[in-house]
Write a structure and sequence with these properties.
The structure is a single chain. The protein is α/β, with parallel strands linked by helices. It has a single domain, classed as Rossmann fold, CATH 3.40.50.150. It has eleven helices and ten strands. Strands 1, 2, 3, 4, 5, 6, 7, 8, 9 and 10 form a ten-stranded mixed β-sheet that branches.
Length: about 300
């Protein structure tokens, strides 16, 4: 807990950003797609693999929303800090939920009279994990992850991890909005250039991954069972942001700052002024942020795609 508290007190902690994002994602996740997931889940116990699992917010959400009761849950993430945090934090939220906890490090068991969830933490590059994985899941989860990968070539590899379902959530789809307007032309330029940086990432990425997934899934042999919007909508109530969402907004602006600093098409002084004003809007409880995204539930590809 000491290390966890220290991480939360850092000025820019990625783990705190993931914590702050929980309430934003809770609202955003498409409830029709979620209901389709519940209807199509095989009889439990089930095996779940989550890639890009971060600190385990999706596992906590599925347990809190009573979507899973008995499961083997494999969390795959390449960041050592995420895996270490996830292992410690799982004990905290499980005990708060009245669950008993056994194990430590890479393996935990969370259980009570009705629930039994066995967690394995895998620190690995997702494609390295795919190569070594021996047992396919009943459910693959990729949350706010696919728009960071080269597409469409990554999708058949990812889908080889599941024999039944893939729940692919919070896939960015090309619309970012900040309100109120500062300068319409500058706002539009910053948003356009930021989206272009997504498309130019060395390791892959797509600023319109949501809409493109319809075609990518079809070409990979998967069946789209449900799809819908999962927009982030963050705004203040009576001048205050809920939970830790002001921190979430500050971190979003940091992504913009890191991605566009020194951009040859962007006036540096104007951009610095824009960032200052957007941060001031957060402090005053004035900034509204919207990002358009898509959720999918897909049936696993035909056996031709399976290893």
């Amino acid at each position: 807990m000491v290390a966890m508290t220290k991480a939360l007190n850092m000025e820019y902690s990625f783990q705190r950003y993931l914590l702050a994002k929980q309430s934003v994602d809770d609202r955003a996740l498409n409830k029709d797609v979620l209901n389709a997931l519940k209807l199509n889940l095989p009889q439990q116990p089930i095996r779940i693999i989550e890639v890009g699992a971060g600190i385990g917010t999706m596992l906590r959400r599925l347990a809190r929303w009573d979507v899973i009761q008995r499961a083997e849950y494999v969390m795959v993430d390449e960041m050592a800090e995420n895996a270490a945090y996830a292992s410690e934090w799982a004990k905290v939220w499980a005990e708060e939920a009245g669950l008993s906890v056994e194990g430590s490090g890479k393996r935990l068991r969370l259980f009570d009279e009705r629930r039994d969830i066995r967690i394995r933490f895998e620190r690995a590059d997702v494609f390295d994990f795919i190569q070594k994985n021996q047992t396919r899941a009943d459910l693959l989860i990729a949350h706010a992850f696919l728009d960071l990968l080269p597409m469409p070539e990554s999708l058949p590899k990812l889908l080889s991890l599941t024999k039944e379902l893939a729940w692919l959530t919070i896939n960015f789809d090309g619309v970012t909005t900040f309100e109120p307007t500062i300068d319409a032309a500058l706002d539009a330029q910053i948003e356009r250039l930021y989206h272009k940086t997504m498309d130019a990432r060395p390791r892959g990425g797509d600023s319109r991954s949501g809409r493109h997934l319809f075609g990518h899934l079809r070409k990979a042999g998967a069946e789209v069972l449900a799809a819908g919007a999962s927009d982030w909508v963050v705004y203040a109530l009576n001048g205050n942001y809920p939970d830790d969402e002001a921190y979430f907004l500050r971190f979003i602006l940091r992504f913009f700052e890191e991605s566009l600093a020194g951009h040859p098409e962007l006036d540096a002084e104007a951009f610095a002024s824009w960032l200052r004003e957007r941060r001031a809007q957060i402090e005053r409880g004035e900034l509204t942020y919207i990002a358009h995204q898509m959720d999918f539930l897909a049936g696993a590809p035909s056996s031709a795609w399976r290893r």
